[in-house]
Design brief:
three-stranded antiparallel β-sheet; 11 strands; single-stranded DNA binding; DNA-binding; eight-stranded mixed β-sheet; EC 3.4.-.-; lyase; about 30% strand
Length: about 240
């Protein structure tokens, strides 16, 4: 994510960047890192859309410590409404996770793997369907500036069939068996609205259009150096043709 917080707020029509810390550009963001999220909350009876920075790995309110987030950076859309970690957030704490693209690894012969950078063909921003939670750290004093942790998870869905008639969807199906679930701009407002409590219904509607959203993506070979999180530059997004 190379865009500034100000540009993201403008892109998603958020009226506020609700942080007092900078969000530096990054081209290699692993789970458990900080990521931008867009959410809506009622403030003095008015619905306000805001940009926050969240820990990528959802920590539910009932967790004893934040290590739970290591296992919950993604949420399967098929079961999120039933899982204790995600079902409460699905009802009223839904968010969008902006991204310029994402990395996925193709398994080769033996231990060989090739990373690919998946992104919209037209250079537009992705808005992944996400969930968020505020978690109170019981080890922190009341009123401590770091007493509360904001965390998020990205919803995923089954990838298309590897023999799909749409070439890019077939490539995505051969690349991995899961896809991050992308929101269309027409469904973004409804997804974010905390007054809409039928999270399972909203999720079903978003998932129904997930493959259509993915049909506008392209796959480019990325630099294997992306496998080391200490490597972080635009060079990781090296383009060199399609998947197969």
């Amino acid at each position: 994510m190379a865009q500034s917080a100000e540009d993201l707020a403008a892109e998603f029509e958020a009226d506020h960047f609700a942080e007092d810390r900078p969000f530096p550009p990054s081209w290699n963001i692993p789970p458990t890192s900080d990521v931008p999220i867009v959410l809506e909350r009622l403030v003095d009876g008015e619905l306000r859309r805001r940009l926050h920075i969240a820990h990528w790995g959802l920590v539910p309110r009932w967790a004893k410590d934040e290590s739970v987030g290591v296992r919950s950076f993604n949420a399967r859309s098929e079961t999120a409404a039933e899982k204790p970690t995600f079902r409460s957030a699905l009802k009223a704490r839904r968010c969008a996770v902006p991204a310029e693209g994402y990395f996925e690894w193709l398994k080769g012969t033996g231990a060989a793997k090739q990373p690919f950078y998946v992104h919209p063909a037209d250079g537009s921003l992705l808005a992944f369907a996400g969930l968020y939670e505020w978690w109170r750290d019981p080890g922190k004093e009341e009123g401590a500036p770091d007493a509360w942790l904001l965390s998020t998870s990205i919803l995923t869905m089954a990838a298309p069939a590897p023999d799909h008639e749409v070439p890019v969807l077939a490539e995505l199906g051969r690349l991995h068996d899961r896809l991050p679930l992308a929101l269309g701009r027409d469904s973004l407002a409804e997804w974010l609205n905390p007054s809409e409590h039928d999270g399972a219904g909203l999720l079903e509607a978003v998932r129904a259009g997930g493959h259509e959203q993915a049909s506008h993506w392209v796959l480019d070979r990325a630099d294997p150096a992306v496998g080391n999180v200490r490597n972080n530059s635009p060079a990781l997004l090296r383009e060199s043709g399609s998947l197969f």
